Amino acid sequence: MNTHVSPAAASPAKSAIACLFVLNLSTGTVSRMDPDGFDHKTLAIGAPMPDGIAVDVEVGHVYWGNMGVPGLPDGSIERCDLDGANRVVLVPPGLTNTPKQLQLDRTTRKLYWCDREGMRVMRADLDGSNIETLVVAGDPVVHRGDATRWCVGIALDHALGQMYWTQKGPDNAGLGRIFRAGLEIPVGETAATRTDIAVWRDGLPEPIDLEFDPSTRTLYWTDRGDPPAGNTLNRAGVDAPSQPTQIILDHLMEGIGLALDLRGDRLFVTDLGGSIYTARLDGSERRVIAYAQGNLAGIAYAEFTPRFGAPA
Question: Would you say residue 9 has pLDDT above 70?
């Protein structure tokens, strides 16, 4: 998850703190650490299968989604402060099925997410109110088990008012796709009938999380399918459909989470093998900053000032 830097954090002041926020499926925890993988701090425990995560440094909040039991409509979305205090449930079980990647829209103060087995793209206000369904990819009952309809990763392109999302497809079937559509449903249409949805990439092993670099108009995505195209981190420019996909990291152990530090020219990736990788945005200077941590899912990078939960 690529996160905004507050004006205070954007200054060269030495008090600015850079952190990674990581979700662990094995332990059900939300944790924070420095970008080199040290100084771990657990922010929340008992999260039922946490996956997507987003950080809002402007108000000092961490948001994450809980998948719950996949296939049951018991997913939820929670929030806490950057130091783990004031944990609250924003979207209670029953309103979303299996929330996956989250994206924070700071312009409209909305939270976007993909609902995997719910086969939807959704959003809500940051307090969990005004829940909307933006895309319906299938019926959870009629199409139960059809992974080609499972919505997983999401990214926002504010310049063109569009969103991108992944539908992963069955394991290693080469049926994964990345779609794009407007942030708003066309007038007179519904989430299930909207006509502005286009396939941006298809024939992918299993595309998962997305991140967008607006300065270069580049979309990044993890893929947890089999090599050579899977177990990779990929990128491509969004304005040239014929541009080939560039694999910038490979040999992941089922890559999931992705975060960009655009100002620092670096990225972070997690995988189900329990590793956290970092590299430059072009994939060079790759290194592992954590390993054997369990099954890691979402990851976010943020910079903030000590007034918002400085490490103890």
Answer: no
